[in-house]
User: Fold these one by one.
Assistant:
Number 1:
Amino acid sequence: MRLEEPRDLEAGNLRTRAVDAARGAKPFDLLLHGGCVADVITGQIRPADVGVVGPLIASVHPPGARHDSRATLNAAGKVIAPGLIDTHLHIESSMVTPRTYCEAVLARGVTTIVWDPHEFANVCGIEGVRWAVKQASDAPNRILTLAPSCVPSAPGLETTGADFDADTLRDVLAWPGIKGLAEVMDMRGVITREPRMMGIVREGLASGKPVFGHARGLSGPDLNAYVAAGVTSDHEITSAEDLGSKLEAGLFIELRGSHDHLLPACVEALASYPRVPQTLTLCTDDVFPDDLWRAGGLDDVLRRITRYGMPAIEALRAATLNAALRLGRHDLGAVAPGRRADLAVFSDLRDFRAEAVIFNGVEIGARDSRPDQSCDQLARGLGLRSFGSEDFLVRADSGRVRVATIDEPRFTRWGEAVASTAGGYVRPPEGSITMAVVNRHGAGTAPRMAFLRGWGAWRGAFCTTVSHDSHNLTVFGSNATDMAVAANAIRAARGGLAAVADGRVRALLPLPVAGLVSEQPLPDVAGAFAAVKEAMDQIATWKPPYRVFKACFGASLACNPGPHLTDLGITDAETGNVLTSPVLGAA
Amino acid sequence: MRLEEPRDLEAGNLRTRAVDAARGAKPFDLLLHGGCVADVITGQIRPADVGVVGPLIASVHPPGARHDSRATLNAAGKVIAPGLIDTHLHIESSMVTPRTYCEAVLARGVTTIVWDPHEFANVCGIEGVRWAVKQASDAPNRILTLAPSCVPSAPGLETTGADFDADTLRDVLAWPGIKGLAEVMDMRGVITREPRMMGIVREGLASGKPVFGHARGLSGPDLNAYVAAGVTSDHEITSAEDLGSKLEAGLFIELRGSHDHLLPACVEALASYPRVPQTLTLCTDDVFPDDLWRAGGLDDVLRRITRYGMPAIEALRAATLNAALRLGRHDLGAVAPGRRADLAVFSDLRDFRAEAVIFNGVEIGARDSRPDQSCDQLARGLGLRSFGSEDFLVRADSGRVRVATIDEPRFTRWGEAVASTAGGYVRPPEGSITMAVVNRHGAGTAPRMAFLRGWGAWRGAFCTTVSHDSHNLTVFGSNATDMAVAANAIRAARGGLAAVADGRVRALLPLPVAGLVSEQPLPDVAGAFAAVKEAMDQIATWKPPYRVFKACFGASLACNPGPHLTDLGITDAETGNVLTSPVLGAA
């Protein structure tokens, strides 16, 4: 367990050792020589050697000026950059444990991440957040953990594992391991001064720690109001114009890599300013395991944003110095004496391939690929009985019934259809698939059901316990038999993703840690995830950009506008209504 | 007394009022309309109106979009800028009280200043710092007070009013009103790990508050060492090259207006970077009262630096957003919702003439010009008996003596001369003037004496209790009679500056508050200071850049290299020796 940062730098005689080494009175612990330093302060790439003492950079000096060092690292032909800082993400999206995630991105040069453990909190409550803080203190790189602000994100419309009110958050925000209030998603609550959300934001502000935002689609008076409420950042950029208005509103921007299609226009817009604003930072937000394994984390964002035309040094500054200043961490973000020796030695500033990584003064060695055993506390199974196919049928008495439907993935709309019945059950209307959600915590309630239209033709089922934001067991399918097989497979796996066709499990990714992540090594999880995705390509017919595999994970996100199915029924965020059955009456 | 900032913004229902006003549900308290906003984030100057609620900016919106406001301010044709932030200064240099200083600069658009009450501390000790913090809490603008780190600045070489060791600073740094450790001047102490200075810096770092620097002349290994020790800023820029190496070292730069001759080259150097670094801030450091009255404070720096070629928006950003980020004050530094309504409405971005100033949401009215009565606590006179002319003669027995001399102002050197004696006293050597320093706190010791060469021909005397850094009573003169008249005049005035010729006081500026500042209004102090300066032009023959009136205030600065006269004698910072008399022996 480390001392709380940045105080750790004042421990023992570290400063004296660094000063002595800087003056040449003592050798360095580590000397990086022969490379160029990416100076994100002046914007120059200049030949310089870097002397490190303990976790500190002691000296940045002309090439070859010093040779006395306990260890050396040849950086010839390479660029020594500050370690990357990812200003907003959910580790859970990568379906691996915090340690596994951090090892993966650290090897790529990401030395600091800002983590909102929103999913663990929604499932496991305070215990989940406490566990997250513990994981952060044991992590191989720096995790700045935030207090999830929206547990649940749709109060009254779903059953989550916990309910964080202002009192809860006051406690959590006082923990030293908590570095701020995580993305405030309930924007309406903030700007209409709904007491619960107002109280939560007030606690965030009173803590003196930053309040991170989620200002999706806000503009004009509503944007002014949201920012005036005390929120200081946003990662929910939807267009170049939206980016501009958020910058002008004074928000720190966490420009995210997860919405790649927006990045080229954003880069172009940023180029139209006299300079890239220093309030621009970069983040990943959500990265699926196969993408993490194949492409990386924030390093991949840097690579893409540079490819789209942002000068590399500007992109690098956003990912380092700007982020450090936003976070109030003057010990981070630059290759300069007195700062922390978090360094990424990149092949160049185009591929950003990390040839070596120094974290807190220590060169990172080869990663091991063993399972992470640190998660027993949250690996306790789901509170669910086994399922029969009748669980995934909708009861109805009369011969023909009017049923409510949820039309179109992602931007959902209410619809209505007439359906026939057989044996006391509704036959799904033409062109629909069935969705079911059941409380994962063992409330004992039957699955709630909905008919989805606009999801194409399915030949099988998909079950997931990753289902935003309450992560109840969620099943989609063309028939009740496959749905039951999928649900039982996930129950047996204690959570995860399963693709089923013809009564047989075609692919399965067990996620036994809180039903959200796996303890297995990243390549294994990435492989299993890719296999599930591939199996689903056979079961469903996707049609980007909205009818995609990813949409399955957001179909229960009841805080968004339009109808969504949760464990309580079909919800409507605008009216607050909940339909416990899609059957509206006799046709 | 205000609530501690920035927490004050969370008091009562301020946020709700601001949010409601932003959405149009309630009127603003104040609406600035018709102007352009200087957007230091994006670098744009764009037409926009600004709605203010209490101390908060609630809305920045398109021109004319709103009209509902309790009060309005017509900004047509003008530029609405963030209030200016001066990142390093000593109010004492302006010889007026904190309130008077703040009123003067606030009217010019300077809403925040970072004050090192170094002079008050050296004279009045902890009581002086406590008083400074109290003055800050009552000030008309925002004073961020720092804990003076170098009291005394030359331990063992002078008698100051106090001695702040690490234990003292630990206490002071814990006060909520103290925002950091002020400029660490004892650079040698830092990099040679002298225990006293090391302990002081350690307390600064342990407090979690920033440690401000003074890295005069440091480069290469010594600069690396000084920065590695934990110091994070510097204002002692001596050249464009020095500026570059300090920026590369990762220091925040407080580029100061007090050394105007350096600014053009610095501006040129900054233009050679791809962009002006975001670690650049601006400060005044020291401004004499006549300059303050005539030209202003940080607004004048902005004016000059722009005239020397820095794009106005870049200069303005350095003086606002960059400073706010350096200070960790996310509520300051930009015209944006949710930030503090510290606004300067400038005529344009060339003259930077403040047509209106809003501080904490309140428009600043006309200043009154009454004396500031808040300083009784520190206006207690000097502990000095009256002087006779024999006090300013150097005793010697023999007929001819060898005497040590201090050669050249500012960059002093040791010299030696042969002098005759008369009546038991040394006759000042050819081409010298006499300098005397006496402990102002009533130690009862006789004045210590020195002969200065290279100061030209004098016809009279000058006495000052502003005499860095211990501010003991300091007298310069061509003859003992005038010196005694000057010293007695200052004793009667309880401190200040006096110019004397032919046995008569030609000009006097009383500075009865700690012998450093006056309670009178700025125009009066500026006028009296100018009169003293003018009188001194008749008494001395100046020869810039070093033989100037200003040099009188630094002739006792014993921490600098070379010989300096203090109340203990002629000191040598390098050897630590002190000569109690300039007489070396018989010739």
Number 2:
Amino acid sequence: MDPVKVIEIKKSVFEDNDADARRLRKELKQKGVYLLNLMSSPGSGKTTTLIGILNLLKEKLRIAVMEADIDSDVDAVKIKEATGIPSIQLHTGGMCHLDAEMTRQGLSGVETEGLDLVVLENVGNLVCPAEFDTGAVKNAMILSIPEGHDKPLKYPLMFSVCDVVVINKIDVLPYFDFDMEKCKEYVHMRNPKAQVIPICAKTGEGVEAFAQWILEEVNNWKHN
Amino acid sequence: MDPVKVIEIKKSVFEDNDADARRLRKELKQKGVYLLNLMSSPGSGKTTTLIGILNLLKEKLRIAVMEADIDSDVDAVKIKEATGIPSIQLHTGGMCHLDAEMTRQGLSGVETEGLDLVVLENVGNLVCPAEFDTGAVKNAMILSIPEGHDKPLKYPLMFSVCDVVVINKIDVLPYFDFDMEKCKEYVHMRNPKAQVIPICAKTGEGVEAFAQWILEEVNNWKHN
């Protein structure tokens, strides 16, 4: 007995993922549903960050969450329990990323009617998810302090495709050799327009700034 | 002017990677070169751990290192500077893993004559590298404390294919909710025979145990 819905999604049959992603984006625009694609390494704190944001936004927006994972449903259960927000689990069957068709399969399990925002928590991976447009309006990523400030040098595409880079676990800054200014410089080498938001999901520090970014994004998109 | 050799490796043309990996393993056995495939998430401390091990083993074994990365050559330069051990950089051209043919292409840039051990530092990724046999004798992985003890639940294949799981950054255990006993239990759910070695690459704690594991591995393999 699963407390959350689990969908086994299949690899896309579409040759042209970019075209398919544009189609999905258009369909979602017509429904007024903003899709945010959240990416990161394993263990950077995506789920904890998401819980913080959802609790700040749930009175202002109607939200649903799709948790993509190779296996397990721990994240979807955690989100649902901690926020009360509808959350489903997508199993990728070993696939290391989601493409637009896989995202569409996931959305078929969500009651999108009347929703403002769907957050897709992508598979924990800094490589493959960056290569596949999911159909999201914007991409966000989380880099955590223990991973090191050099990551934009090593995973250039991920940092190029993200509009906002959230830097999590700033509470442990004293224990790691992480240079925040260098990190910002490297992020901006990859994407000069990327916003960088330092946070600590555990204590809640800075989480409001990320929630505010999302809220403004959704509102601007709805009225454009 | 690059201080280290950089090889741009291409996607494999072989349909059957498993057969190709077996072939490569056999070729290396004939040469007496033990290939160790080291995997982990981005930022778990693969390179720092490797530097510690190499400095402990370099008087006992003749070693070379291949650093695989999407881009940049920071790791190969760091290894060479910190250990004096021959180190080359493999650029995967966006590919998220190495297969056996890519590994063979990398090895073509290494002077394997007379070597005992080649360490392949795979692309930082807990998903795809687990799916492709590189031709290595054994797989090792590093999980770091900040990533969380639940990772074997979420990335089952990676933990199934690894013979040793090194748990790095134990110096920051007090600052994270990481349950070492749970982690070991989850690792052994995936692979009951996996050795778990807690270390701190930064301070050197426990690194000798990992070096010892490698030394025994290489020696046993040479004499069997």
Number 3:
Amino acid sequence: MKILFKNGSVVNVFSDSLEKRNVLIEDEKIIGVGDYTEDDADIVEDVSGKYICPGFIDGHIHIESTMMTPVEFAKAVLPHGTTGVIADPHEIANVCGIEGVQFMLEASAELPVTVYIMLPSCVPSTAFDESGATLTAEDLEPLYMAPRILGLAEMMNYPGVIAKEQEVLQKIEDAHRNGKVVDGHAPLISGKELDIYLSAGIQSDHECSSYEEGAERIRKGQWLMIRQGTAARNLNGLIELFDEPWSRKCLLVTDDRHPADILKDGHIDHIIRLAIEMGKSPFAAIRMATIQTAECFGLHRVGAVAPGFQANVLILDDLDSVSVRDVYCGGKKVVSNGKVTEITTPAIKEQRIKAVRNSFYVDRLRESDLHIEEKGTHCRVIKTIPGQLLTDEWITEINWAKNNGIDADRDILKIAVVERHMHTGHKGIGFISGIGLKKGAVASTVSHDSHNLVIIGANDEDMMCVANHVIKMGGGYAVSCDGKILADLPLPIAGLMSELGATELAEKNEKLLDTLTFLGVAKEVAPLMTMAFVSLAVIPSLKLTTKGLVDVGKQEQVSLYADL
Amino acid sequence: MKILFKNGSVVNVFSDSLEKRNVLIEDEKIIGVGDYTEDDADIVEDVSGKYICPGFIDGHIHIESTMMTPVEFAKAVLPHGTTGVIADPHEIANVCGIEGVQFMLEASAELPVTVYIMLPSCVPSTAFDESGATLTAEDLEPLYMAPRILGLAEMMNYPGVIAKEQEVLQKIEDAHRNGKVVDGHAPLISGKELDIYLSAGIQSDHECSSYEEGAERIRKGQWLMIRQGTAARNLNGLIELFDEPWSRKCLLVTDDRHPADILKDGHIDHIIRLAIEMGKSPFAAIRMATIQTAECFGLHRVGAVAPGFQANVLILDDLDSVSVRDVYCGGKKVVSNGKVTEITTPAIKEQRIKAVRNSFYVDRLRESDLHIEEKGTHCRVIKTIPGQLLTDEWITEINWAKNNGIDADRDILKIAVVERHMHTGHKGIGFISGIGLKKGAVASTVSHDSHNLVIIGANDEDMMCVANHVIKMGGGYAVSCDGKILADLPLPIAGLMSELGATELAEKNEKLLDTLTFLGVAKEVAPLMTMAFVSLAVIPSLKLTTKGLVDVGKQEQVSLYADL
């Protein structure tokens, strides 16, 4: 079937210009850009005054962080013009291993949004992590044969690369030998350390936050991914890279994106819009989200409105505001006047569904499991900073007599991280400050990168109550108070994803946050974000894992008791 | 082993700028660009005042047209900074089929110049050709597994693509399915015809000669190869494409290049030099010969001076004149102060050598074989035009009584094209004008694309003599007069290549031309070039094949006798 778009302006990513030309597509392919007429087509779309633009590609995202399955994710981002993503299923891999990667492959098969997959390079992330799986080079290698696998995902273990650890280099070499690419993740390293890292053949980075940092990466041959997601927002710091010659080596990515943000602001379209508002060329911004992403990942005939290219085409009402009206994926209209049409949910093998829906191997908690032994007068308290992933260490005297050390008046709450994958019974328990909860408790299984069960509370009963509720749901978030569950958000797929759509997820998420506000958490605190990063022992200073407190700077475990 | 280049200026193809930085290489790889010192290296090269530039890559060349084997070709182009070529072994494939491709693969293995191969797409070139082999999609497909095979070479059969011929589309589909690219060759087509051609997924073209033609290709998503070789020279017509945004999608190529031109003017360095002389940015020109060529062909970590990239590095005395002093390939110094060091000739299987050295299946000619029967008063004569590949048809009265129709005074010579691959005994005989030979004869086996034996002469005895000499040599060029061979250039490998170096080939070639001048050929006539294209029935108007005269416009055979 042939469709003609007539009277529109084509956004040409090769000539950086608008072209008053008609576009003809046949089945899944663009077959002509020129003087085509009604006689050439079966269907004619008059797009007078509108723009015909290639579909956007997110160069780096963890779909799990949207809490949506790939099909629901597709429904959420298609109205924003996203027709492709390069996804790293790192989160589910930390819970379910290769089964998790296979689940994401199957769950994203033949969606209108093409989901390309990069193989998770660092599972587990650190030696402190107790994840659900370990992925070795040997585990990953056979997967390079699968379709849609483009390479090895963000190599976060830059100390391992720099130290030339055999297993790390083997993973990189396997990707290269299979003709695939290797993405990077190495914030703030530069000069000679960066050179060693790059010498391993790592093609990109998405962790840069300043012009100088970004420009060094580009000068040294990397593709620079400009990230503007929910947690990390680097557009401001990198905006100068939209100018020439830098823009030629930049891509736009989100890394992670919450449902509420997708609904409110959008996805890649949002980054393009912001860049244009900041005075940058729409052509540069669009190139960075289309043809250049395709080139970076070796995708042929994707990312442009040109003959022979995949018919992933957006009809924009306006260029500067990137207002997406219609979206065609592989020649099929999937968004009409901003509304997504019916999308088929991919069939997934029973075995995969079982594997990802049974990710809990942990006993129900008893109140006594959360008890802290009184071994000293002063303890190390994790002091969170509103709006940041960094934490400080705060050493303070603990009033053990009162509520096993919890003192909501002094903003000292209890925190527990419970191993949930291997039934080890391991748990770390400590104190945390900066959350502001006056009563009740909150629990979550979204906790980078191992996604163990994190509980923060003002008393042990509520912590027990909320933890057991989350275990019963098979993962997710919940808030309790006085022995009752006040709000929850089940994430039964690996404790990370739901089958709900963006709107319902955003509503449930908002209810969680409202409930926490009601229980005393200040507006500027992002409690779920804090819980998501409080176990990640790569961001300074003091973190809590299933094995106890970690001094991130020293990369060693430390005692809860400051005087021991 | 580590080598440090200190005090030089790095030509950075990512930032379009010069950088005062030291460069460290280890073994085959660049491992650092920055403040490295003597302490970091085993060998230190002080390159004060010089430029450190990535090695040049020719995006499209037929090595056979240099008449050199790959190793001699490498020795000739290395002093000009060429460290990689994308070669289409189309000529030898027309003579020897897959054996010819295999020969080129083996003969180019592990040379300092990396020889990447594109599989010949059109063997034979036309239905009129009697070539030594036919390459089907089925023949080509298994070769995609071989190393250094990047795709399908110039798809010249654009009528076949446009008509969607099954076999043609199959070849393209096979390349794509194997993750490879397909180069184009489609001069002068534009608009809707071009759209159909491009819709097959053809990524490049090297046949454009004007800005408008080139810009249309780029706008429609092709890589534009700007060709400046020995026969076709398009730089002048395309010079505006060195400006932005066009330059980002252009490459530099030679297509064919004769030894004398390589010695006198250079290779890719020559094109860069010319562009700079014409006022264009050296950075744009160098990008078009390095990183962009790598990107076009999906070559990772090649084409830049950056950490992790192959250490294919040039030391230039001067940037604007692109004067190459030293050349490093994979970290090994192969050109020192303009002189090539020892290069090992690749080992080639005995079977391959036999196949390409025994490419003649033709009997020795007798004088009577060249006799033309007198069947009419007027004949069609091929009228050549000095400096052009086009010919005209000239109908004139033939004086049969005198020398079987040859009349050197009226510049009417005899021409024969003798099938030499299959022992068919097929031969086309006719008349040719515009060469100017007063006596003697000349023969050649370099005749696109089938490379049959072409003889032009002022009498049958000399034609027989020179033809039999060429047959005895196993191919090449020769000139005879009065029954004696006055000059020759043996090309025993497929009748196309010699094992001689560029200097000797250039000398022998010059002697051939001088001898022809002595026999009456005017300076402005390029007789060997004329012979090379006189059988190619795709360039108008009148051509001679082994089956007789062809009217190219009508694409049909025509009689020698104009009145029949």
Number 4:
Amino acid sequence: MSYDDTVTIAVDAMGGDHAPGVVLEGVASALAKDERLQVVLVGPAEVVEPFASSHARCIAQPASEVIAMGEHPAQAVRRKKDSSIVVGCRAVKEGHAQGFFSAGSTGACLAAATLGIGRIKGVQRPALCSVIPSPVAPVVMADIGANADCKPEYLVQFAQMASIYAEKVVGIEHPRVALLNIGEEDTKGSQFAQQAFSLMKDNVSGFVGNAEGNDIITAKYDVIVTDGFTGNVVLKTVEGTAKALFDALKGVMTSSLKTKIGALAVKGDLKALKDSISADTYGGAPLLGVAGVCLVGHGSSNATAIENGVLASASMVRKDVTGLIAEAVGKR
Amino acid sequence: MSYDDTVTIAVDAMGGDHAPGVVLEGVASALAKDERLQVVLVGPAEVVEPFASSHARCIAQPASEVIAMGEHPAQAVRRKKDSSIVVGCRAVKEGHAQGFFSAGSTGACLAAATLGIGRIKGVQRPALCSVIPSPVAPVVMADIGANADCKPEYLVQFAQMASIYAEKVVGIEHPRVALLNIGEEDTKGSQFAQQAFSLMKDNVSGFVGNAEGNDIITAKYDVIVTDGFTGNVVLKTVEGTAKALFDALKGVMTSSLKTKIGALAVKGDLKALKDSISADTYGGAPLLGVAGVCLVGHGSSNATAIENGVLASASMVRKDVTGLIAEAVGKR
């Protein structure tokens, strides 16, 4: 690290099912691991002030309100101007932090970041991006739910932004980019997909063609681009299918004494397989295209997931993902 | 069975990766198992005639052409008027058979059935339907690819048709029908999904609300309705994810002597789990809404899958799925 790589991340102390406990724990670990990290901890004064005064490189930013998981995102963001999510995004907008991390409501983070931090100039729509849990290799997908309704041209920018994330953060050199579709041939798919194909072919470096549903988890491609409706359904389908199969497998392994004994021998390797397809490795889903780093963690995040999320946010700032996106999008 | 339940199914002798060998084998088994089954075997004279003359209840219907898997479906159907798929559908149209089964090109079967057999009066668009391989319970999904572009109102009929199939063929009493969406709440989703939700709520008996991607394989609902683009991507995602995990599991099980020994103990139960999520159990994907039974099997079908497909086609005829759909759709 160079002398000037100190990074400040605003962290939503109230985000997630186990907040604020696991958030504080995760922030403490992140601060301990990264000596050039500063945290602006956003939440109720009685939560953030005692923590900040007992931890170096942590600043308390009181915010009196909390947006709950079930609230209507856009409405909640407009109404609760002193909520931890809105105040956290404002800290980025005003330059007190370079990135924002929350394990709270994804919808509220999207709304608050888009309204509060604002889009990078030239970006039509920010995209939510995620690393698909694959046992083969990491696969980056966008959009996974920021834009339920898309125009085909949005997908060109989704591809550009996701490629930068794949290369700089996930570490995939020269990522191969594919459009999610219902057949491999150029002429396949809905009218939307056909138009997106033609635009991506002409405007996305690294574009290699169409991917089908069964190509995702096999890591046949590095970046999968789709609209936010399909992407959200597909990501949840992968997660749900993997979870259901592991649950069924657990049933098989514990069905008799014989299988229990057999299970003992494969237990460690199975755990490793299960971990390899865990969504937590990359710290959360980045919202790409806003004028500052914004990372959203799983609601079920534990302290380790929070720590990963805060460190990943800092890493995205240091790798200047936002600047690279601005440059790439400005080129067109 | 009653005295009049003799059923005639036209079978594409040239459909699938291993045709005609496995098709003939499968047809022979189906004829042996179901004594009230007649088969019109469609394909090159030199293939179908010797088989028909050596098997009771089998009639040869020569067809000189074959549509290959890679061909453009609609074009191939228009050009190859003497292909086994086109001739097979014509046999249904002309009343020589009540159903058609093929393990050939899905797209060509859809095009040939829609053009050749025709739609049930009142059906806006036929839907391709499938049973999702779930370790929990069978889940019926439509559309899985007949209509890449849909209007919201199509989904009402998809729901009605898939419910009849779920109840009569899969054996699910009072199926719970859900719309595939990106959130549980009524107001969630794309404009398309919101419109479909509102129409389904008013017009589909058994409609219980929105399903998300992670609700599919858990069998939280019995029937999942969506457009053909999303349905196709999701079905392939489930199949691809399950396959990738079983492949990874195989790697785990054979990684060392210790795990190999452990694997021996769970082998049988694992095989049972793998079989429980096999797509072959229901014989293929029915095209619902055409004026005759049309079932499309996997291209990779073996003789057992072909046998299941032919028997399932006969079962759909006996259960009068086509008549029940006509009645349900006529009610609106």
